[in-house]
Amino acid sequence: MISKVMQAAINEQINKEMFSSYLYLSMAAYFEAENLPGFGNWLRIQAEEENEHAMKFYNHLLERGGKVELKAIAAPKTSWGSAMEAVSEVLTHEQHVTKSIHDLYEVALKEKDYAAQVMLHWFIGEQVEEEANASAILDNMKRIEAHDTAILMLDHRLGKRKED
Ligand code: MG
């Protein structure tokens, strides 16, 4: 049986993952409206992954006899000043999620919840990847800033990203 403290913290994290999914779906719509479908493809896939993250926490609670309590998902922004601004927000958002995963791990340590610690190891590794990917795309964009042709080439590359 999972502790009430751990259960509440995981329910909060489910909400954060769902919000991430919502935010990326909103960004995908922004990029597609801007005729950058490759960025849209990348963010649609990111949105699906965030939904899968929420489900990992959801399943963990259920497997351990906990109660899933879904909360209202805040409305994400619907527009950004530029492609660079949006991608920069992906990186800062992922850094924020990393902190919340680390905070959750602290709760699992305090609660001596070994099962949650094992589950969270996957998320800690996943966040390293999420930040590295967003950071690499942002670095490419900084190099090619103001060169629209290069932005279109990057859009083409992101359009090839498939679900893994
Ligand atoms: Mg996530």
Description:
With 164 residues, the chain is mostly helical. The chain is built from five helices and no strands. Magnesium ion is lined by residues 17, 20, 50, 53, 97.
Brief description of this entry?
77% of the residues lie in helices and 0% in strands. By secondary structure, it is mostly helical.
Features of the shown structure:
single chain; 5 helices; binds magnesium ion; 164 residues
Apparent shape: elongated
* Molecules bound to protein: magnesium ion
Low-confidence stretches: none
The portion of residues forming beta strands comes to under 5%
Largest sheet: none
Structural class: mainly alpha
Classify the helix fraction into a percent range.
over 70%
Give the SSE order as H and E letters: HHHHH
Number of helices: 5
Please specify the SSE layout and strand pairing:
Elements: H1 4-33, H2 37-63, H3 83-110, H4 114-143, H5 148-158
Helix pairs in contact: 1-2, 1-3, 2-5, 3-4
Magnesium ion binds at residues 17, 20, 50, 53, 97.
